[in-house]
Amino acid sequence: MKRFNEKISRKNTNCVKWNMVDDDVLSFSIADSDYPTSEEIVKCLTDRVNHPVYGYTFPDPMYYESIINWTKRRYGYEITKSNIIPTNGVVTSLYYAINFLKDKTEGIIVQTPVYNPFYSVIQDNGKKIVENKLIKNDNFYTMNFQELDKQLETNKILILCNPQNPTGRVFTYDEIKEVVRLAKKHNAYILSDEIHCDVILEGHKFTSVNKFASEYKNMIVFTSISKSFGLAGLKTSNVIIKDEKLADEFRAFLATKYIGSGNIFGLVAVKAAYNHSEAWLDKQNKHLTNNFKLLKKYLNEKHPEVGVTKTEGTFLAWLDLSFLGMPCEVMQQELLKFGISINEGKRYSEDCKGYIRFNFACSEEQMLAGLEILSKFINANTK
Ligand SMILES: Cc1ncc(COP(=O)(O)O)c(C=O)c1O
Fold first, then answer.
1. pLDDT over 70 percentage in the chain
2. Residue 46 domain-assigned?
3. Is 99 inside any structural domain?
């Protein structure tokens, strides 16, 4: 686990997460990881850098092969090259998927609390946000299928987030099966953001909606190497559409918007990640499992009043601090003064003003230092 506990400064690397806070602040905000990516990825990128011409480039057959093999090995379903559309970012792809389907619906369903750009891609397409609130019970979130069933009668697009940001749910096979069944019943489209699908904590199993592609075709899946391998700065992603007709139509649509595939380094990194970095990924998932266990233990012992949501996947802890009675924007400012940066709950849902999102993709030492600061902040505001 040495690589994941390595101390490495990201200051002065144009890093959004660390350069926007003062030098004495520890950052647990933006969803990227603070440890080095796999040695194989660094090596492949270095080899490419060493060839000093960086002109126009395209995804080669090995690029597609790496995704096809990874998908089969890790997620258990088959795809071919024609199912894959390389793109340059999941949010961009989501925005254009809605744009592509804009005549199908006025309302678009999101399951909240959820990653905030889901709201803006809907609004920027001139569509209405329809909230299918997740149900919270004992610090664990589940879907409200009954309400979803009703909402799908009139709203023909659902944006699914699995694994879910910020709640960390990895929806089960049965839950995903039910979502697909409902979408089929109402002839609605599922846009499934699966960007966190490789980051699964021990004891959980990821199920893509594409596992049910033989039963239903109106589904678009979004994946990327960015969260899985600490490569968000490469802006490289893939859209996977099992239905070839839909895939061809979306590919042709994206061409009219001049959306190209990832950049030269992203194309190299995809192959290095999927072909050579599986062992690194499994080690990362162990490290994250351990970090989350420690985080939960620490908060349960020191501050049992904090609601620690059960994270099953992603590297995000979703913490309910509403017992403090402090709005999250104030909490965020106060925590900065104490020395940590987090994301405020409200950006994921108006209902979550007492929550913070705490990213634990860092060394154990850094995480524990952050928790100490959080603990001081809680003590200072409860005594
Ligand atoms: C659920 C989800 N989708 C998409 C993104 C961003 O993807 P991209 O940088 O490829 O646009 C994130 C980043 O945090 C995310 O959590």
1. 100
2. no
3. yes
